[in-house]
């Protein structure tokens, strides 16, 4: 067992460093097919390494700080990727922020949340979580999504589904305030609303706890390696994005599919971490990761692209179309019905996964 842990520590240390080195060597260059294959392989390794180091940090700091660290770290680097692609893409990237943010919301609220509920309920009978904390998170996500992605479709100050400068500033400031208020609620005033619930049967006969918490030094090293791994994941995802765009164009698919693929790649670490938590019957941790990621994706991306719009010359299209607004509304209604009881069966998980499948199908065939 010790040898296995030592081996895990070795490869999870080497892969993030190698990913960053590969990123430096390939940044801004046109990559041949075999290099893309190597980059994709290292990207997958960096995802697994990021999950490992996120779990080490989470074990040290405890919930809900652990899920918050991973959600914020992934989102900050995702924002950097979106802004970089927008700067490089010109008018073609006018909808990139909207497509990527909406994809992140659908993947987290339906995909990660649904998969976690399905895994947790199948393995433990019923997936149990705190409805107060999860409900507050879902309400914040719904408000942020409506203010940032729905209202631009209906405003009239500027033609097209765009905000005027004043409206965009309001949306950006509101997003930051709501996100900061939620983080304060989650980590300080009502932290107990976001802690995993222990069933009565588990209190009577507790299962084996995790290994002893890592030292501060080990946690800090893992935090640094987590940052490297996430930089590698997002940077290498940008490196293969021209190949993704070429494949999307060659297949005759809508350009919005690029945003979906980017979101899927970037959210892989959180998906794996959430499913692992659900398997351990810590569904609340999975919910924190899913909804926290959705919230961070909107609450940090909208202010960032609002700031970037000061020097970007092309339009910034944020308003969703009718089909996506229907999917968003259905997702929030179903999410509220899932959250209110504080427990879920495989049915609820399956419903959310079907909504994700519907979104993906409509992204390919609008």
Automatic annotation (TrEMBL):
InterPro entries noted in UniProt: Alkaline_pH_Ca-Antiporter (IPR052946), NaCa_Exmemb (IPR004837)
Ranges annotated as spanning the membrane: 7-28, 34-53, 65-87, 102-122, 134-154, 166-184, 218-237, 257-277, 289-312, 318-340
Swiss-Prot/TrEMBL keywords: Membrane, Transmembrane, Transmembrane helix
GO molecular function terms listed in the Swiss-Prot or TrEMBL record: potassium:proton antiporter activity; sodium:proton antiporter activity
Pfam families recorded: Na_Ca_ex
Record's GO cellular component terms: plasma membrane
PANTHER family recorded: SODIUM-POTASSIUM/PROTON ANTIPORTER CHAA (PTHR37958), SODIUM-POTASSIUM_PROTON ANTIPORTER CHAA (PTHR37958:SF1)
Record carries keyword Amino-acid biosynthesis: no
Organism annotation: Streptomyces griseoflavus Tu4000
Compartments it resides in: Membrane
Keyword RNA-binding annotated: no
Membrane topology value: Multi-pass membrane protein
Domain Sodium/calcium exchanger membrane region: 34-187, 222-362
Name the record gives this protein: Cation/proton antiporter
Source superkingdom: Bacteria
